Amino acid sequence: MKLRTLLLGAAAASVMAPAAMAERGADGHVNVIYWQAPSIMTPYLSSGTKDIEAASLVIEPLGRFDQDGNMVPYLAVEIPTIENGGVTEDLKQITWKLKEGLLWSDGTPVTSADVAFTAEYCMHPEGGCAQLAKFEGISSVETPDDLTVVVNFTEPKPNPYQAFMGGQSPILQKAQFENCLGPKAPECTEANFNPIGTGPFVVDDFRPNDVISLSANPNYRDPAKPAFATMTFKGGGDAAAAGRAVLETGEYDYAWNLQLAPEVIAEMAKGGKGTPVSAFGTLVERIEMNMTDPSPSLPEGERATAKHPHWALSDVRVRKALSMAIDRELLVEIGYGQAGRPTCNLVPAPEVYASDNTDCIAQDIEGAKALLDEAGWTDSDGDGVRDKDGKKLALLYQTSTNAVRQDFQALIKQWWSEIGVETELRNISGSVFFGGDPGSPDTFQKFYADVEMYANNFDGTDPEAYLAQHTCEKAPKPESQWQGENINRFCDEEYDALVAELGKTGEIEKRAEIAKKLNDMLTKDSYVVVPLVDRGRVSAHSNTLGGVVLNTWDSELWNAADWHRVK
Question: pLDDT value at position 18?
Fold first, then answer.
């Protein structure tokens, strides 16, 4: 089967939650808590999930992915296909039609110029767009009229649904952002904190790493939505406090990402105020290996850049040994229970794209020791820490502050000590770690550590853009304001060539074959990405909040316009 066949029958009808029964704003106030506080309101300057999802309340894409991974139109009239004439037979062009009468929250018309500008903004050669992989292969964007957007590709694009699709690629208002191109992007504080949007809510007050006050968008396209007049989006604290605030005390209506042990969630649920919701998607907890040297002794601007390869982790044997020492099944048991599965894959789903790689599941301490011996790392002075050429095998291991992640760190530190690796642990507030502040030394993009642990996923059910994040040019660096998706600075010409091949391959079986090979190049071949757990998404909502549909293929807040109060 070819992907062009799928394009012929791509669903264009929205599968949505039941509409709210109240008039706009009639249900008063709703409280949302994300224990990782948003630091910015645009996904183009942050790849942190908490920023992407907060922004999705305000700025929207042309289309989204629903709870089943189907494509559904939002600002567009329909999802373009070959059948409806929106995708050309040669797969080199896709044409989007905007809905008539769309307004920005400031009352001005939404036009095709805004869509074209969004592409210009992210693709600017001097910029640091955190979602650049979404725009892979685009040669130009044309606007023949105010409601028509024509996207041209350099080569046939069997999967043209990347740019402008999903919460990671929303439309920006040209009038607000046109002076924010390239290196000026992070300097536009007002626009980045208070974007003018088309979503159900508008920002009234944004306090980075703290709280967002929002109100119903007076120009939202459905006059009956949203049902809530105002929203408080509280950030900070921890997952346990967020869970209690919904499940036990009822202080909040929605709590995101309850990264807690399953028995803890079950006990909280006995409070009777709310309901946990969960689903599996593509969220993988992993360890990233830094391929560059983050040593503070290097000049600023050269740390964690291609100028200086990592002094130990450049050797695949060291990276593989660190992976072999980990007991993933135990991590799942203590951290996630039924909401987790041990994995060796960066792309664990959909099934057609998931590699059958299971080599990493069985822990092998002795094998790891042998690999380090082979790499020349031995304990020459008998202190329990391996050394080579006068340098100790001592690593800095960082992640965000969270009880489960700190449990993982402690266990992995112990396993690594058993193979002669000394580990210093650092945990950083999630609001900072996943933020996009180019001046902060503690962001996961800057990666001023040897290894770091986190989880993320991709919009929709096709991993092309996700795998394209690891091409050479997408490494965060000073010239890109430390934005970029290739977090560990992996660079391989063969990998880049395969990504290009995936981008022009239409046959599903062939696409799956290439995607699996790319996954394996990052994981079992090079160990630059060390997957640990295929995590189910677990959140919670109050028993009085209706319309919630958990979505693992897009923003969790994808249908906030349909939320309403259950009387």
Answer: 42
What is the C-alpha to C-alpha distance for residues 377 and 360, in angstroms, rounded to an integer?
22
pLDDT number for residue 22:
58
> In the numeric block, which tokens belong to residue 18?
């039941």
Query: Distance between alpha carbon 354 and the CA centroid of its chain, in Å?
Result: 18
- Label residue 384 exposed, middle or buried (CB < 10 Å: 0-12, 13-18, 19+): exposed
Looking at the DSSP assignment, which residues form a beta bridge with residue 499?
Answer: none
Provide the angle, in degrees to the nearest 10, between the axes of the packed helices 316-324 and 365-374. 170
Measure the CA angle with vertex 268, ends 428 and 433; round to 5°: 10
Q: Which CATH architecture has domain 281-461+527-536?
A: Roll (3.10)
In whole angstroms, how far apart are CA 377 and each of 80, 212, 270, 367, 425?
A: 56, 50, 51, 14, 21
Place of tokens 């295929």: 534
Question: Using CA atoms, how far apart are residues 505 and 510, in angstroms rounded to an integer?
Answer: 7
pLDDT of residue 202: 98
Nearest one of 435, 440, 336 to 49, comparing CA atoms: 435
Predicted local confidence at residue 387, as pLDDT: 98
| Banded pLDDT at 244 (limits 50, 70, 90) | very high
pLDDT score at 436: 80
CB 403 within 8 A of CB 415: no
pLDDT at 76 over 80: yes
